[in-house]
Amino acid sequence: MKMLLLLLPFISLTYLTNAQSADSAALQYKPLRFTGRQLLIPATLMAGGILLNSNAPGSFKKFVVDTRNNKMPHFRTHADDYLQYAPIALAYGLDAAGVKSRTDLANRTAILLKGELIMTGTVCLLKNRIDQRRPDGVGYDAFPSGHTAQAFAAATFLAEEYKHRFKWMPYAAYSIAGSVGALRIANNRHYISDVLMGAGIGFLSMKVAYWTHGYMWGRKKRINTAIL
Question: What's the rounded Cα separation, in Å, for the pair 182 and 11?
Answer without folding.
Answer: 52
